[in-house]
Write a structure and sequence with these properties.
By secondary structure, the protein is mainly β. It has one domain: Ganglioside M2 Activator Protein, Chain: A (Distorted Sandwich). The chain has two helices and eight strands. The chain has a five-stranded antiparallel sheet. Strands 2-3-6 form a three-stranded antiparallel sheet, with no helix packed on it. A hairpin with a 2-residue loop joins strand 7 and strand 8. It is globular and about 45 Å long. It binds 2-acetamido-2-deoxy-beta-D-glucopyranose (3 copies). The site of one 2-acetamido-2-deoxy-beta-D-glucopyranose has 5 residues, from strand 2 and strand 6.
Length: 177
Amino acid sequence: MSYLPFVFMLVFSGVLMYEQNDYIMILEHVEIVSYNKQHVGFAKTRNFKYNRTHTGTNFTLKMLTAFGNNLQMEIQGYKFASNEYRLFPITFAVNICATIAKNDFGLQNLYSCGNFSRCPFKKGNFVICNWSPDYSKFPPFIPAGSYMMDYILTYFDQPVLQAQGYASVKRIKDFNP
Ligand SMILES: *[C@@H]1O[C@H](CO)[C@@H](O)[C@H](O)[C@H]1NC(C)=O
Ligand SMILES: *[C@@H]1O[C@H](CO)[C@@H](O)[C@H](O)[C@H]1NC(C)=O
Ligand SMILES: *[C@@H]1O[C@H](CO)[C@@H](O)[C@H](O)[C@H]1NC(C)=O
């Protein structure tokens, strides 16, 4: 149960500042499950292999609503065990603009390629390119395994977009590239 401390940190600390070199996270792919056509004109991902440890994702997005600082994201983790993804106690909700402002999870890397809207979010067509998670800024001690993360974006309690990311976590000491 070595992951419990970090779950509590995620839930109870307003500030998420991590530096870890305990594991690598290999993103397998990100897919858009659904979106609300009232707020999003289209949303697509394209996943590609970047190098041995990094998969890149390109996002194209048409935002029909100026979300301002009001987009929330609920995150639920699932870990693959006994042939299925089972609920894993990673579950939290964040305000996306606040998360980006603090660079939690290294999310300012959303701006390293493309033209995604800065906060407050505006309407428009946006591209985020060559993105992959900056796992050096993720919490330490996540157990090795295969994970599915479910992301639900909401705007004043209305669903905006649901995406899922698949990734595997390997201990650095066990990883022989
Ligand atoms: C893969 O690319 C990432 C991002 O540029 C880089 O940090 C990492 O060191 C690269 N890995 C290898 C094995 O080249
Ligand atoms: C962002 O880039 C895309 C692709 O180049 C372009 O179609 C879109 O108009 C750009 N959006 C903004 C807000 O500049
Ligand atoms: C991802 O986007 C970048 C920048 O626009 C582009 O150069 C690259 O070809 C795209 N990759 C794929 C697989 O579409």
